[in-house]
Design brief:
Layout (H helix, E strand, L loop, with lengths): L5 H25 L12 H12 L3 H4 L1 H17 L5 H14 L22 H9 L8 H36 L5 H9 L12 H22 L9 E4 L11 E4 L2 H7 L4 H23 L10 H27 L3 H24 L3 H25 L11 H9 L7 H9 L2 H4 L7 H13 L3 H30 L14 H14 L5 H24 L7 H31 L1 H32 L13
Antiparallel strand pairs: 1-2
Helix pairs in contact: 1-4, 1-19, 1-23, 2-4, 2-23, 4-18, 4-19, 5-20, 6-19, 7-12, 7-13, 7-14, 7-18, 7-19, 8-18, 9-23, 10-22, 10-23, 11-22, 12-14, 12-21, 12-22, 13-14, 14-15, 14-18, 16-20, 18-19, 21-22, 22-23
Length: 613
């Protein structure tokens, strides 16, 4: 078959991106079924590569262009998802709309003004309730969209520059495993293990995961259908033993990718989670009346700070030596310019300069840490961040003298950066760099593709969400309870309610953030000084972020991997790797198939919802 020209490849990418945006709109906003854009990597990107292989179109693109197409689609689709632009729009408008029913919100409106925010009673009302004409008042939206999409662009550009600075250290010196990049290379046919789609073990894992997903969906309609369920739990209702209540959430993707993670990271995930449950129990036994011990969320914030400090300290030499290369010098300049722009933008929108530096500095630092976590542990969850931790940290450490109503209001608005997973999206850039290096694609071309995909994703996300909201109303989309709205509405309201009725947790925030920071630094020190120390700070941080969801899958993957290596050695481990990647691919395939079925069958909407969190 004759290869596609450059313009043909661009046209194919644009066509697939538009089709994916319609898929996401119907599956997530209208039918509220599988959250296809929330998975890591996004299900539509995986499906696109598989379908291109089925129709033999991948051979027309060539090995490099198929990888670039996959990178383009993963970044574009991620912009459409629930924790990205979809969470941004309600933060932009919630205070205006709900100020009539919640008079306490009226004090915030003075600081939420044009050109950064859309105004007009009818503009805001129609956004939430739908417009009779079903048309978007673009005149009120164009300027805010241009400004904030420029902010998003510079944010992702800055993150890309920072990741470029650390690229040499992670790839060449630390030799991170990049499990998700290995999965992407496998499905695009560029893996070192040839014959991925011809491996019977891959299809065995694919079949097992597909049956798991589809039988669970059928079980939602008819409980008599044999199905495993989505979790298994043991509960102890009485204190102090209630602290030992725990469960295993069945997440095939987490299980499959945990197989590729270092064993000490997997061990640390489940060990830290069990230790946290014991700490909770001991707290009750010792008579503590403080609910929430050991405050995993705050420990995760401290852990992220510790990992950032360690990441910068370990890479300092590689970055300094790399400054001799023009590419890294330009990356440093680009990162500094981006940070200055972001702080200036936030200040112009009304946020104080010091508050902007603290908030945006922690967001970028945590984005770097999450990218490294995913590069090593392969955690396929965008929510594996201490979401809204940056907001809490900023409110806790900033002097009370500067925390005026204006700063509090703008900090609450900028929570869209921290309560969603905008900061997690740059991890796709890190994986794109690794895939490019494995296939001989210049890093400069990767940067161009990533930024082009970001622009395309923002444009499609703006169009998809605004046209849907003004046609149906934001109140009734992406939710099974239209009277209350979905997370996209409840989270901004929760944030503004926190300003009206603040909860004093300053002491707990400082104390347990310090515990998390100290734990990470102590583990790092022990790793360096104690031969074969079994625990890894990355596993501890992941456990503090989302241990309840992932510890069981990491435990099973660690147990199976340890047994395989001891009995069959490295050769057996490599032989079983396609089986685990097949599990990942099977869940994505079945979840995507179910989303199609529920989109075309209205009575199936709002049933069998599949999340990836």
């Amino acid at each position: 078959m004759r290869g596609l020209s450059l313009f043909g490849s661009i046209g194919l990418a644009a066509l697939l991106a538009c089709l994916i945006s319609e898929w996401v709109r119907r599956a997530e906003l209208l039918a509220f079924t599988t959250q296809v854009s929330e998975s890591v990597p996004p299900i539509p990107a995986v499906w696109s590569i598989i379908l291109l292989g089925v129709v033999k179109a991948s051979s027309c693109l060539g090995r490099k262009r198929i990888v670039l197409l996959y990178i383009f689609l993963t970044v574009t689709t991620a912009m459409l998802s629930t924790g990205a632009v979809r969470m941004f729009f309600p933060f932009l408008t919630a205070a205006q709309y709900f100020s009539e029913s919640r008079p306490d919100y009226s004090g915030f409106l003075h600081w939420l003004q044009p050109p950064f925010f859309p105004v007009g009673n009818e503009v805001i009302r129609s956004f939430y309730e739908g417009s009779e004409s079903e048309t978007v008042p673009w005149g009120a939206w164009v300027l805010p969209l241009v400004l904030w999409f420029a902010f998003f662009m510079v944010f992702f550009w800055t993150a890309f520059c920072l990741l470029t600075l650390f690229r040499h250290q992670w790839h060449d010196n630390e030799k991170l495993s990049f499990p998700l990049a290995r999965f992407g290379l496998a499905i695009t046919g560029q893996s070192s293990q040839k014959g991925f789609y011809r491996n019977p073990l891959m299809w065995l894992g694919f079949l097992a995961a597909s049956l798991f997903v589809l039988t669970n969906v059928l079980g939602d309609f008819n409980p008599s259908v044999p199905h495993l369920g989505r979790s298994w739990a043991v509960a102890f209702p009485e204190r102090p033993w209630s602290g030992l209540s725990m469960g295993i959430v069945y997440l095939p993707t987490v299980f499959g990718l945990a197989w590729l993670a270092p064993s000490n990271v997997s061990l640390s995930v489940w060990f830290s989670y069990i230790l946290a449950r014991l700490e909770n129990t001991m707290g009750w036994m010792l008579g503590s009346q403080t609910a929430g011990i050991p405050f995993e969320h705050y420990q995760a914030v401290g852990g992220y700070i510790g990992l950032f400090l360690l990441t910068v300290w370990v890479a300092r030499g590689a970055i300094w030596e790399g400054m001799r290369k023009p590419q890294l010098r330009w990356a440093m300049r680009g990162a500094l310019a981006g940070i200055i722009f972001l702080v200036a933008f936030a200040a112009l929108s009304g946020l104080g300069v010091l508050a902007a530096i603290v908030l945006l500095g922690t967001v970028l630092a945590f984005a770097l840490v999450y990218a490294k976590l995913r590069s090593e542990a392969g955690i396929p969850l965008l929510w594996a961040v201490p979401y809204y931790g940056h907001y809490d940290l900023a409110r806790s450490i900033l002097p009370s003298a500067i925390m005026s109503l204006q700063n509090l209001t703008l900090l609450a608005f900028f929570r869209f950066l921290t309560r969603g997973y905008v900061l997690a999206l740059p991890a796709y850039q890190s994986e794109a760099m690794e895939m490019a290096a494995s296939t001989g694609i210049p890093q400069r071309r990767v940067g161009s593709i990533v930024m082009l995909a970001t622009v395309a994703g923002l444009i499609l996300a703006g169009w998809m969400h605004l046209t849907s909201y003004y046609r149906y109303g934001c109140n009734v989309l992406e939710t099974t309870n239209p009277s209350q709205g979905g997370d996209a509405i409840s989270i901004p309201l929760e944030t503004y309610d926190g300003l009206v009725s603040p909860v004093a947790e300053r002491t707990s925030c400082f104390t347990w953030t310090g515990v998390g920071l100290a734990s990470v630094l102590a583990m790092a020190a022990l790793q360096k000084r104690v031969f074969r120390f079994p625990l890894h700070p990355m596993g501890f941080v992941l456990s503090m972020c989302c241990g309840g969801s992932i510890w069981g899958m990491f435990f099973l993957a660690w147990l199976m991997k340890t047994a395989t290596l001891r009995i069959g050695g490295l050769r057996s481990y490599r032989a079983l790797t396609p089986l685990m990647l097949g599990v990942v691919l099977g869940e994505f395939f079945a979840a995507g198939a179910w989303s199609f079925a529920s989109m075309v069958t209205p009575e199936w909407a709002y049933k069998g919802v599949i999340f990836f969190r």
